[in-house]
Amino acid sequence: MTQARPKMIPTSAVRTERYELRRLKEKLERLFCTLEEALEIEASDSFNTFSPSIDLRESTDEVVILIELPGVKPEDISLSVTANDICIEGEKKHSAHTTKAISHFCCERQYGKFSRRINLRWSININETRAELREGTLTVFMPKLVDRRGKSIKIPIENKE
Question: Which listed residue, of 35, 59, 85, 156, carries a Cα 20 to 30 Å from 17's Cα?
Answer without folding.
Answer: 35
